[in-house]
Amino acid sequence: MDVRDITEKIKQRSSSEIAAIEKAFRFAEKYHEGELRYSGEPYLVHPFAVAQTLAGMHLDTNTIIAGLLHDVCESAPEEEKEARKKEIEKQFGKDVAFLVEGVTKLGKLRAHGEERYLENMRKMFLSIAQDVRVVLIRLADRLHNMQTLSAVPQHKQKRIADETLEIYAPLAGRLGMGKLRGSLEDLAFPFSYPKEYNALIDQIEERRKRKEVYLAKVKYKLNEELKKAKIPVVSVNARVKHVFSLYRKLQLHNNNLDEIYDVVALRIVVKNIEDCYAALGIVHKLWRPLPGRIKDYIALPKPNGYQSIHTTVFCLDGEITEFQIRTEKMHDEAEHGIAAHWIYTHQGKPKAGGAVSKSLKWIAQIREWQKESDGTKEFLENLKIDVFKNRIFVFTPTGDVIDLPDGATPVDFAYLVHSEIGNHCAGAKVNDKMTSLEHHLKNGDKCEILVQKSKKPSRSWLSFVKTNYAKSKIRAALEKK
Ligand code: MN
């Protein structure tokens, strides 16, 4: 272990920040002295790996330091815990001490079954609302624990893997961290569903190898054409689809692998949005696109903010192949999500949009809900529905996007735009046609709410609204009457 493996990952930090990271490394080394991981390695390997992950996400220096120190209190004997906490604060300041304590608290999860799940969720959401960096450290911690799961006693493995699929992976996804989500899922998959995992690997391995050789040829041809067209390219790379997401997709396609074309896809990263469309033009000029397979997530971002153009074409030798086209910034955000936020603020650039502003908006929303609730079981159930269910996005007449759960109605939409619009909602137009307030909105709909000052919420709305946010606002208005 060399602390330079951490500090080399972060650029543009002052020498005092680098010195602080080195100091934290020695501090962790001292307190974990003699402790071992299940694998028999020195314990320090673990916080070291966590800090490396956080540095790789370009997070701020205090978060990296807290990553190095995150188990110093947790692994201490009870009577020493308080003293260690104080020592961390003295040596590294309040912010680091706060982060370490937050991570420690998030680690003490004792309940079982459904209770444990809800308890986990509650802690996660409270932490996100307070300081999302605590959760980012927990996610990096979980990543390394998953990477070393095979050394853990067998009877614990499945539980940890299931928990990862249930809580940590969706959470990473919701924070826009696609890369981390994919890694967590793929690491958990063989432990949670060993039979299904082995069957799938047998099925795809050969296909994957063949496709990689094939894509090298496609890549060569494509690079030539992009060069001719004078489109500056940042990178063109074959991207192997995450195994677990492939498994999920297969379930939607009756387990027919032939219906899935993106086992491996080609990803084109360019400088700006204009070049994305220009590159799309080149791909379509070279190879005929499959109808209905062009998805423009640049113009219409996914609910979590994901942006890219996807297209599937009859490629070289007529082989069906998927392409993904995006800018460097979109690529960064798709991989790192909320963590990309720090990249941009650190370099003094404007705040990142897309996935990041989406995530930040989501966090602001959680904060608001949390203020309104008392942390009851009902509140948690609501969060599960509002946050993790399938999402659709619906446009306002001015082109803003409202993120809603599947099956949401114009009344849900109205409340999310503004509670006053919800409270005085008298009718709705969807795609310029009058519809009922119970109408199920679809992805990409444009919705306009007709408002009447005299109109008040009706009790009957409670029977069809989908979001708990709308429900709570309607109840509040009814009580006032
Ligand atoms: Mn840990």
TrEMBL record:
Pfam families: HD_4, RelA_SpoT, TGS
Record-linked PROSITE patterns: HD (PS51831), TGS (PS51880)
Origin: domain of life: Bacteria
All copies of domain TGS, residue ranges: 390-451
Pathway membership: Purine metabolism
Signal peptide (residue range): none
InterPro entries documented for this protein: Beta-grasp_dom_sf, HD/PDEase_dom, HD_domain, NT_sf, RelA/Spo_fam, RelA_SpoT, TGS, TGS-like
Biological process per Gene Ontology, one example term: guanosine tetraphosphate metabolic process
Cellular component aspect of the GO annotation: plasma membrane
Domain HD: start-end pairs: 43-146
NCBIfam families per UniProt: spoT_relA
Known function: In eubacteria ppGpp (guanosine 3'-diphosphate 5'-diphosphate) is a mediator of the stringent response that coordinates a variety of cellular activities in response to changes in nutritional abundance.
PANTHER family membership: GTP PYROPHOSPHOKINASE (PTHR21262:SF31), GUANOSINE-3',5'-BIS DIPHOSPHATE 3'-PYROPHOSPHOHYDROLASE (PTHR21262)
Protein family membership: Belongs to the relA/spoT family.
Name of the protein this chain belongs to: TGS domain-containing protein
